[in-house]
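Worked problem 6 (solution included).
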Amino acid sequence: MITRRRVLGSSAALAALAGRPAWSAVPPDDARPLTAEERASHALNRLAVGPRPADAAAIQAQGPKRWLADFIATQLAPEAVALPERLTQRLAALDTLPLTTAELMARYREAQRLAREAKREGAAAGDARRELVQPIAQQARAQRLLRAIDSPAQLQELLVDFWFNHFNVFAGKGAVAVLVGDYERRAIRPHVFGSFRAMLGASAKHPAMLIYLDNAQSVGGPAARAGRGLNENYARELMELHTLGVDGGYAQRDVTELARMLTGWTIGPGDEFRFEPRRHDAGPKQWLGRTIAPAGQAEGELALDLLAAHPATARHIAGQLAQAFVADEPPPALVQRMADRFLAAQAQPDQLAQVMRTMITSDEFWRREAWGAKFKTPYQYLLSSLRAVDAPLPEDLQPLLGALAQAGMPLYGAQTPDGYKNTAAAWMNAEALAQRIQLAQTLNQRLRRSGLGADAQTLLATLGPSISPGTRETVAAEPAALQLALLLGSPDFMHR
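Solution. The predicted structure is:
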């Protein structure tokens, strides 16, 4: 049992570690190449959410060079990766995941109806939502967490998180609560190694996006004169966030004209996308220096085509990917090469896989200054901690999801369209560090009580060269009961 004195001692030691510069603080003029062991560790922290003890064992058995070549090949071809049985069993038990959009929306409408009846009768209005809506949202979050921790296709899971964030929808807005899991499953997950244009179109037409950014209610033409009107929310974010970027060379008039082109893109029978001609502004438009002739739904499709193929979009997407996977301020030459590949491969079904391959095979990705240079988001910190200690996941995942919410990063909980940031400036603060220290202590206590998962020595072997000699010395000087928490709370572990 860990006494209060020991927990306080752990906090003091963690605070001392927090004051130590992280191993990732590499001098910018350090040109030493990464060793084979460091390259393997780097890959597990950038192309996966972090190592497990089995990874360390595989590296030792195969040798780091051979292991790394196999690992990268596997991560870029996730369709060949079989999910472990324990993951498939956990996912199969989530009975709301296979529901169709119509079935999900039927539950949402029924909850709304029952809530209205309860309000009229003076009863608790939240019961219907708890019974009909919350299980859907909870299971969507659970499947993301389960996949991110247990799937061998780790790069795919990181990219699902990246692209969901890029095309963010907020589960707290109306019916998006029941649609968010379906949105990830149909609009994001199938396309992360595929065509950007395909993902752009899938996002644009999914009911979750149509509701979240209000395009389902945007009306032009005669219908607008009946009391409804143009809504520019989606058009603005489509250019500013999803494609061109804030400096992409467009003006406010382009936002308005694009919104006109997208009128009539709404939700129809079966609660799926439908183009409604009566809601469409059928007049000509002037957009991005082009005259757009009236063409109904084809106007919006043309807009998506042009935006997906625009050089500014290529630079914007390349910059965001390089920032997420290489450095908060990514090397401009790497961004340009990734953007060039984005444009060259736009007609190919594996366009985004080619962009990722360009990044992964670059010198910049493997330079020493990239080693440990990224600070983990709360999501990455939680997942990497759970993988590193290799403890069985509890049946009830709500405490883990609650820890994410407490850390300011609830799953599907980013309210604004720009989603969550992935830079150190967004997450490196005193409150966030205190929460991570508390999580490290909680995991340590849970492991000691259960006798399951890694001990400190196993954890050190798992984390390998990502834990600096200085941190190892500091941890070794502390009581054995505190060492695992100290490692998880160290600056070295908080970087990737």
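Discussion: The mean pLDDT is 92.
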